[in-house]
Amino acid sequence: MPTSFDPERVLCLPLMANLATTSTDGPRNAPVWFLWDDGVLSMLGSSDSRSVQRIEADPRCAVEIVDYDNAEGRLLHLGLRGKATVTEMDPALFKRLLRKYLDADEANWNRWFIKTVARIDDPEGRLIRLQPDGIFTNNVSYFRTGPKLAT
Question: Which residues contact 33 (CB under 8 A, 6 or more apart)?
């Protein structure tokens, strides 16, 4: 009884996504922040991160994003599949992504986080970019209400 929904409904939210990749030891999964822009999902990485190394070895991947609110009865599942690429960091794109998760006003960003974790201008920064071959949506927001979808 699942129904579809507009993927933009989830892609615009500051949710965690799960990036699934393959390795010689089997599948791997990593939580990531993301930015959806002009049909491409961009995720953060660095030249020495395992996710980046796995994508460079085998670009096939999947990304799952779930918008879940138990009290409201909302359960929206979005999946994206395809082959990703790894590019050098684009500081302007990275800042747009940070605005989505931290605050639209950079003055409100935690300076320690920006300097020691985000490192916007780090030459080792990378973007994992997925232009999906397939997108699927699954709205099962009726788990509390029965056959009528929760809104």
Answer: 14, 16, 17, 43, 44, 97, 100, 101
Q: Round to whole Å and give the CA distance between 128 and 89.
A: 9
pLDDT tens-digit series, residues 35-47: 999 999 999 999 9
To the question of pTM greater than 0.85 for the whole model, the response is: yes
Residue pair 49/126 in contact by the 8 Å Cβ criterion: yes
* Whether the predicted pLDDT of 61 surpasses 90: yes
The CATH number of 8-90+126-139 is 2.30.110.10
* CA angle 100–45–61, rounded 5-degree value: 95
pLDDT at 20: 98
Handedness of CA 47, 50, 55, 58 (dihedral sign): positive
